[in-house]
Amino acid sequence: TMIIEFSDNLLTGNNTIDTQHRELIGRIAAFVSSCEEGDGKMKAIKMLDYLAEYTEFHFSEEEKLQQEVSYPGFKEHKEKHEEFKRTVDVLHEFLEESEGPTAAFVDQVKQQVVDWLFRHIEGFDRSVAEYINYVNNPGRL
């Protein structure tokens, strides 16, 4: 099984963002383990809802932070968030229509949710954090 946990290589240096990422990754891990342990369809849907709810909160908070500093990459970053929300919707539909989470479903979650998020944090979110830091500490290069 894949280890889904917050690690130092996911730190962006922005405390708000990092704290929220810890929570988000915790909820993803709970969702994946519920799928892997064969808890059944209703539990998986409940855990996905729990994840989706926090995703909405986190993305909107992160977007507010970007708008506060007029982050130049805002539009592209927001599009990435929308892409992820669509992925979660598709997973939700699949669960609703299936017997429950299969091994193939879990693989899909790992690729489209876990791998995607870790890459997004290491690239997009780190850039945001660096920009915010730069704006808040002008002249310190």
Number of strands: 0
List low-pLDDT spans.
Answer: none
Query: What class, by secondary structure content?
Result: mainly alpha
3D shape: elongated
Order of helices and strands, N to C?
HHHH
In percent, how much strand structure appears in the residues?
A: under 5%
H/I helix tally: 4
In whole angstroms, the N-to-C terminal distance is 42 Å
Spatial extent as radius of gyration: 16 Å
Determine the fraction of residues in helical runs and give it as a percent range: over 70%
Mean pLDDT: 94
> Main β-sheet, in a few words?
none
Task: Describe what you observe in this structure.
This protein is an all-alpha fold and 141 residues long. It contains 4 helices and no strands. The chain has helices at 15-36, 41-68, 74-97, 103-136. α1 (15-36) runs antiparallel to α2, α2 runs antiparallel to α3 (74-97) and α3 packs antiparallel against α4 (103-136). The radius of gyration is 16 Å and the shape is elongated. The model has no long low-confidence stretch (mean pLDDT 94).
